[in-house]
Amino acid sequence: MGHIETIYGCMFAGKTTELIRRVEGKNVLAFKPKLDNRYSTGHIVSHNGETLKAVLIDRAEEIMDHVNGKAEYIAIDEVQFLNSIGSVCRQLANQGYKVVCAGLDLDFRGEPFPPMPYLVAVSHSVTHLRAKCVCCGKPATRTQRLIDGQPAHVDDPVIMVGADDLYEPRCVDCHEVRGVRKKMF
Ligand SMILES: [Zn+2]
């Protein structure tokens, strides 16, 4: 029987590490969107340095061209950038695949990435991972975006792939977005 597992949370919450752990030693076919090229091409890489060989795709539908009935598991990282990932995961689960997804639920403003609410709703199991707030140490659910050390503005573009110097985990209280008059919890 197929199923969909989704791991979500802010940056530095350990999503990719958990994704790799769940499919380690399994017969797995892995995918990730092309735009995420922080570390390498052709691999899913966690902040801790674990790796999993992956097919790079532009759109979620391309996954269907690569599956061939041989893999038991399908692992997909950074799913927040794949707009129809939810419906593709349902097709995969209907074909008997065990699908494990990992991705950011919220963007730097604290707004949901468009595919995530649908994906979470159709998942058979969901895991919300939290990081530790760099300001106060409480559990972090938000990704703070910093540009030249200052909180990013609400009108800045959403997608900008970066590393530790640009993003950090914060709790809701410590999360800051410039240009927002009233904070959204
Ligand atoms: Zn905090």
Automatic annotation (TrEMBL):
SUPFAM superfamilies per UniProt: Glucocorticoid receptor-like (DNA-binding domain) (SSF57716), P-loop containing nucleoside triphosphate hydrolases (SSF52540)
Residues annotated as binding Zn(2+): 133, 136, 171, 174
Active-site residues per Swiss-Prot or TrEMBL entry: 78
Main subcellular location of this protein, as a coarse class: cytoplasm
Record field: catalytic activity: thymidine + ATP = dTMP + ADP + H(+)
Keywords recorded for this protein, A-Z: ATP-binding, Cytoplasm, DNA synthesis, Kinase, Metal-binding, Nucleotide-binding, Transferase, Zinc
Enzyme class, broadest EC rank: transferase
Alphabetical list of Gene3D superfamilies matching this protein: 3.30.60.20, P-loop containing nucleotide triphosphate hydrolases
InterPro entries cross-referenced by the UniProt entry: P-loop_NTPase (IPR027417), Thymidine_kinase (IPR001267)
GO biological process, one term: DNA biosynthetic process
Pfam families, per the entry: TK (PF00265)
GO CC list: cytosol
Annotated localization: Cytoplasm
Recorded GO MF terms: ATP binding; thymidine kinase activity; zinc ion binding
Binding locations of ATP: 9-16, 77-80
HAMAP family reported for this sequence: Thymidine_kinase
Family: Belongs to the thymidine kinase family.
Descriptive protein name: Thymidine kinase
Upper lineage: Bacteria, Bacillati, Bacillota, Bacilli, Bacillales
Gene name of this polypeptide: tdk
